[in-house]
Known about the structure:
- The chain is of the alpha/beta class and about 280 residues long.
- The protein contains 13 helices and 13 strands.
- The strands form four sheets. It has a seven-stranded mixed beta sheet, with helices on both faces.
- The N and C termini lie far apart (about 75 Å).
- The structure holds glutamine.
- Glutamine (GLN) binds near residues 89, 121, 123 and 124.
Amino acid sequence: LKTVQEVLHNALQIVQKQRPDHEVQEWIAWNLKIRRLDLFLFPNSFISPKQLASIDSGCQRLAKGEPLAYITNEAHFYGFSLYVTQDVLIPRPETEILVETASRFLSHQHPSILFDVCTGSGCIGLTLKKLFPSWRVILSDISHAALEVAKENARRLDVDVEFIQGDLLDCFSGKALCIVCNPPYISTHEMQTLDSSVTRYEPNLALCAGDRGTENYEHILRALPSHLLPQGICFFEIGSSQASTVMDLSKNAGFTPLLHLDLEGRPRVVAVQREISIFD
Ligand code: GLN
């Protein structure tokens, strides 16, 4: 029998830094149903041949650059455990800023309607439903497969939300007080600069927007007057280089934008509301 220490050493050798070391450690801990820290607290415990076989097969996948979340079909977001497949993006920590920013707005409103446009795994809309259970939450995505993942997450989080399949805001009827949206925002040019673990494993449909990268914001801003209540706010996640473009697009569409930074001080969320006039 091999010990934890030996297996860990061997696994890191197989993966060859194609994925970060912590993913290799997490993968072993996941198989043993222990915490990552326990690998270092109990380095001499033994690993069964069956566990070893599973660890090895996952390490082969990590060695090709596949993100751990797709191997375990699990990602962590805002303290919740979510189901993920290659049909959805792996929720990013930056996106928690969008949830937090929207939460601050929702906490001052009477319960109303919220749309999560391009929901993917459902991470944003489902987390907000969890935090604000009396809101009516509707999640949309163009991808049927992504909506199936979001539905599974609604079951896991035990929340009652609605789903619509369709492109951006086109599939919605009626208006919401809050719209949250993390649309595909990578330009065709920028796609070539992304880490190959992202482009080879994560769905291109959820990443790539078009030649400018801002096409989806343009599209949603055009449809916003028919889908946002007068006192409502729409929260966009943006790429850190897109702040001024999205701010300008919002102003040109007749809205007042407000920029929020992420924990690293980079532009990350644009909150868009109807123009507030001093003459009102
Ligand atoms: N809303 C989902 C997320 O934040 C999916 C985003 C997308 O598909 N571009 O992960």
